[in-house]
Design brief:
This protein has 410 residues and is of the alpha+beta class. The protein has helices at residues 30-35, 37-42, 61-70, 94-104, 116-119, 180-186, 192-200, 316-322, 350-353, 355-363, 399-408; strands at 50-51, 75-84, 126-135, 139-146, 149-156, 159-164, 169-174, 207-217, 220-229, 236-244, 250-257, 265-273, 291-294, 327-329, 336-340, 365-369, 372-378, 383-387, 391-395.
Length: 410
């Protein structure tokens, strides 16, 4: 049994660099998009049940973090379970439509049911079983198992294929090999290791990090690394990462909220092998009679399975370039992103948007302060405040923390 041991590490800083000019934000989509922020970061990471309490050599938190950093696993296959409980409101499918529309185009229409930009939003809630296979940076396959159907996403060299067996529809895109290095540097978290590394970027003097015993994950011995905020006011209670004792690869990622209850995200392998998958795993030919949709757009990316650059922000500075006027307030786990929608007003009123305006307003909590009035939209992890003059405050912080930030910024 590895002992508890605290080892704080400092890595992060603060960015406050607004970009000149503004773009008009989509006022109707903002609240639901904000709800999906945390879900979007989940990407394709795997989930599981653990058992046992293996006897492993003692290791410090600093040594375990270094072991994660040095892990070089590039080939694996296995079965994955993902359970996500963000506490999203039940919109009767409206949220999935808006999120997939935002990912698939300006109007979200005319796409394919096999387009991954829409299908992967299903991982934003509930429990899902996946099969995954990886053979280096150019070959990956993910299959989402459904009732009497299956959705598969395959990246094989220059080709990216999506196949929906229920509708017999196929999505196809090509990847420019010249952009491979840039894509690799920009891609968002897409494996347990990537996701754990993103979480560890938040480690600074506001964070407690310790080794909290051992576990067995998918039949493999693992150390349990626990990361917790020292500050009050964050919605994050703790992050637990099960790290394979042999390879240093994170096998399980669990995020629990400060409010208590079940995990917000529980992701990990139920079965895993580090042998090279057979090459035929990544071969794909559209079935006879399938409807094939070619993606000819030049500016879309689809997680870790290729697509077109850009792949997503590498840093808060890059994110600031993508959102006009974005600033980061506070530090550590209490950081809050704020930007101006440029609309000059908050949510649309019922007079402006009919029933939709009132419906969106009913999803949030009305608040007021020195900044005026606003609406807070909440999940169990991410909260967002939209003020009546069109400013947005978003973070993994409590509603009160958002109100204080808006008052301080007034």
């Amino acid at each position: 049994m590895a002992p508890n041991e605290t080892d704080d590490t400092t890595t992060a800083g603060e960015v406050e660099e607004p970009r000149a000019g503004r773009r008009k934000a989509a006022r109707y989509v903002v609240p639901v998009t904000v709800m999906g922020v945390a879900a979007a970061t989940i990407g394709l990471v795997p989930a599981l049940a653990d058992s046992g309490d293996p006897d492993l050599p003692d290791i410090t938190a600093a040594q375990l973090i270094e072991k994660i950093a040095q892990s070089d696993v590039e080939r694996l296959s296995g079965t994955v379970k993902i359970t996500t409980d963000l506490g999203l409101p039940d919109l009767g499918g409206l949220e999935s439509g808006l999120l997939s529309g935002a990912a698939g185009g300006e109007d979200g229409e005319g796409g394919s049911s096999a387009d991954p930009s829409g299908r992967l939003t299903e991982l934003a809630s509930g429990t899902h079983t996946l099969r995954v296979a990886v053979d280096g940076p150019d070959r990956q396959k993910l299959s989402l198992l459904e009732n009497a159907a299956e959705y598969s996403l395959i990246h094989n060299g220059k080709d990216v294929w999506g196949y929906d067996s229920a509708s017999n529809e196929v999505y196809h895109a090509t990847v420019d090999e010249a952009d491979a290095e840039e894509r690799s540097a920009q891609q968002p978290p897409a494996t347990p290791k990537d996701f754990a590394e993103e979480a560890l970027k938040a480690v600074d003097d506001t964070t407690s990090v310790k080794v909290d015993g051992t576990a067995q994950v998918a039949g493999r011995d693992a150390y349990r690394l626990v990361v917790e905020p020292k500050q009050s006011g964050s919605t994050v209670g703790a992050v637990s990462i099960a790290v394979d004792s042999e390879t240093g690869m994170p096998l399980k990622f669990t995020l629990t909220p400060s409010s208590g209850g079940s995990a917000v995200v529980d992701i990990g392998f139920t079965k895993v092998s580090f042998d090279r998958p057979d090459a035929s795993t990544f071969a794909f030919t559209p079935p006879k009679g399938a409807k094939v949709t070619e993606d000819t757009e030049q500016d879309r990316g689809h997680g870790d399975f290729g697509g077109k650059p850009e792949r997503g922000p590498k840093s808060e500075e890059d994110l600031a370039k993508g959102l006009d006027g974005l600033r980061m307030l506070g530090e550590g786990w209490n950081s809050i992103a704020t930007f101006d929608t440029g609309a000059g007003a908050g949510l649309p009123t019922e007079e402006e948007a009919g029933d939709l305006g009132g419906f969106l307003g009913s999803l949030g909590d009305q608040v007021k302060g020195d900044f005026g009035k606003g609406t807070v939209f909440s999940t169990r992890l991410v909260n967002a405040l939209i003020t009546e003059d069109g400013k947005v405050y978003v973070g993994t912080v409590t509603k009160d923390a958002l109100v204080k930030a808006a008052e301080a910024g007034k």
